[in-house]
Amino acid sequence: MLGRLFKRRKKDPLWDHFIHSQPSDPKNDLTAAIAGAPPGRTYPIKTVDSDPATTSKSIMELARWLGADVVGIVSQEFAAGQAPGASEDQPAVDGESEPPENSGQNFTAGLVCGFFTDYDLSEAKGLGGQQAVQKGAVVNHYMASYIHELGYRAAIGGVDPMLIAEAAGLGRTDAEGRFVTRKKGRMLHVAEAVLTDLPLAADATP
User: Fold this and answer.
1) For the packed helices 52-66 and 131-149, what is the interaxial angle rounded to 10 degrees?
2) What's the rounded Cα separation, in Å, for the pair 58 and 198?
């Protein structure tokens, strides 16, 4: 029955509304809440792993298990000021005696996840049309949280994710500003990059 209900018929008004109509109440869409969720604390003891390549493989497998269609990693120096809220003179929060974890420190790797979509995200503003964006926010939250649990810092955003995706060999940006892969006819939503100091090896395999 669900298959019939959600069958993509060209003249199905319910499906068209699900794909193209922006929610009348923003609270019906949890994407913003997930993307804006405050980060958890970083575990004080780092998980020891002497092989960045093995760590990268595990991180990429986790991202795919969570729902990412493609994953890329770029090893590069990222200034702390690129990360959201990063500032050396940022005051402590809620009485904490130590500054925020991102302040005055550099990230050394960027992780980016891509999600295939059948719709132009600039036009399909409905909950269904924006599904790839929603999935990206959820996966990023879990990836950053897991990195924190490993004892390393992670911040979402602050750099152009498409540049990282291109550097990782995931695809390219076309003339219309959409990110496309080698698989013809498929558009890719590139979620915000996750910047981290977790030792990772660059990956250039789409």
Assistant:
1) 140
2) 12
Predicted confidence (pLDDT) per residue in 7-43, tens digit: 555 678 898 999 989 888 988 888 888 888 888 999 9
Strands 179-180, 187-190: pairing is antiparallel
Q: Give the separation between CA 204 and CA 190, rounded to whole angstroms.
A: 16
Residue with tokens 């970083």: 42
Residues 6+ apart with CB under 8 A from 51: none
Q: Could you tell me the pTM of the whole model?
A: 0.79
Q: Domain-by-domain residue ranges, the chain?
A: 42-90+101-196
Q: Which of 74, 87, 95 is nearest to 159 (CA)?
A: 74
For the domain 42-90+101-196, what is the CATH code? Answer: 3.40.109
CB-based contact 117:187 (threshold 8 Å): yes
